[in-house]
Amino acid sequence: MAGKLALKGDDVDWKPGPVYDERRVHDRSAVIQVAISARHQRFPHEQPFPYEPFAGREDEFVLNDETWDRWIKDYNTKDLAI
Fold first, then answer.
1. What is the pTM (predicted TM-score) of this model?
2. φ, ψ (nearest 5 deg) of residue 14
3. Of 39, 48, 74, 78, which sits most exposed with the smallest number of CB within 10 A?
4. Residue by residue, what is the 3-state secondary structure of the chain?
5. What is the sign, positive or negative, of the torsion defined by CA atoms of 55, 62, 69, 74?
6. ∠59-25-77 over CA atoms, to 5°?
7. How many contiguous H segments (helices) and E segments (strands) does the chain have?
8. Which residues pair with 20 in a beta bridge?
9. pLDDT (tens digit, 9 = 90+) per residue, 1-38?
């Protein structure tokens, strides 16, 4: 990942939360790319939305059991609250 990003957030109770670095934002955003894959599986005739942060890496985020377990299961534990 190019560049540096880090931001300290607050949790939902306004207590100090985790630092939102590029890895955490990437991991949370992966849900979007998997959702795009899921929609394309359901509606294969539609052109999938080109989600720029994952351009060229779409095949890594195709909805299947592995990506479900890695990116979707418990995804809410990586929510971002700033």
1. 0.75
2. 65, 25
3. 74
4. CCCCCEEEEECCCCCEEEEEEHHHHHHHHHHHHHHHHHHHHHCCCCCCCCCHHHCCCHHHHCCCHHHHHHHHCCHHHHCCCC
5. positive
6. 95
7. 2, 2
8. 7
9. 555 555 555 555 656 667 788 888 899 999 999 999 99
**How is residue 29 written in tokens?**
């955003």
Q: Which two tokens stand for residue 58?
A: 């779409």
Q: How far is the C-alpha of 2 from the C-alpha of 57, rounded, in Å?
A: 15
| Model confidence band, residue 65 (pLDDT cutoffs 50, 70, 90) | very high
Letter for the amino acid at 82?
Answer: I
DSSP-derived letter for residue 50 is -
